[in-house]
UniProtKB/TrEMBL annotation:
This is NADH-quinone oxidoreductase subunit. Keywords: Membrane, NAD, Quinone, Transmembrane, Transmembrane helix, Transport. Pfam families: Oxidored_q4. Its EC number is 7.1.1.-. Belongs to the complex I subunit 3 family. It comes from Microbispora corallina. The keyword Cell membrane does not apply. It is found in: Cell membrane; Membrane. NDH-1 shuttles electrons from NADH, via FMN and iron-sulfur (Fe-S) centers, to quinones in the respiratory chain. The chain crosses the membrane at residues 12-35, 70-91, 103-122. InterPro entries: NADH_UbQ/plastoQ_OxRdtase_su3, NDAH_ubi_oxred_su3_sf. It is a multi-pass membrane protein. Signal peptide: none annotated. It catalyses: a quinone + NADH + 5 H(+)(in) = a quinol + NAD(+) + 4 H(+)(out).
Length: 130
């Protein structure tokens, strides 16, 4: 009966199923948020409206600067993580018959790009602790 209503056997039938499931999911999510808003107590006080900082009373302004090198370390970590993600599948494909030399050359090109990025970061003194 469901297949006749939605027309699952047609080209757009599978898309209709996805749209229906998406609408059901959004409805459940919105219904939960609406129920939360309707059932929660609403008694704002000045103490409840202050900023909470781990149990410590907020002092000073809410603006704090952080050094750019922490972001650079994060980007370098992402580069190494992506490198590791590509190295593991390469190691499994390398052993497959017919892929040896092609995958070897591709991986060395990839590693050359990674090495150039690391060399650039080292030359810009990003990798040096100050």
């Amino acid at each position: 009966m469901w297949e006749e209503m939605v027309g699952v056997d047609g080209y757009f039938g599978s898309y209709a199923v996805v749209v229906v499931l998406l609408l059901v999911g959004v409805g459940i999510f919105a219904g939960g948020l609406f129920a939360n808003r309707m059932l929660r107590p609403d008694r704002p006080t000045p103490a409840k409206l202050t900023t909470y900082e781990c149990g410590v009373d907020p002092v000073g302004e809410g603006w704090a600067q952080s050094q750019i090198r922490y972001y650079v370390y994060t980007y370098l970590y992402v580069v190494f993580a992506v490198d590791a993600v590509f190295l593991f599948p390469w190691a499994t494909v390398f052993a497959a018959p017919g892929y040896g030399m092609t995958t070897l050359v591709e991986m060395f090109v990839f590693l050359a790009f990674i090495a150039l990025g690391i060399l650039y970061a080292w030359r810009k003194r990003v990798l040096a602790w100050t």
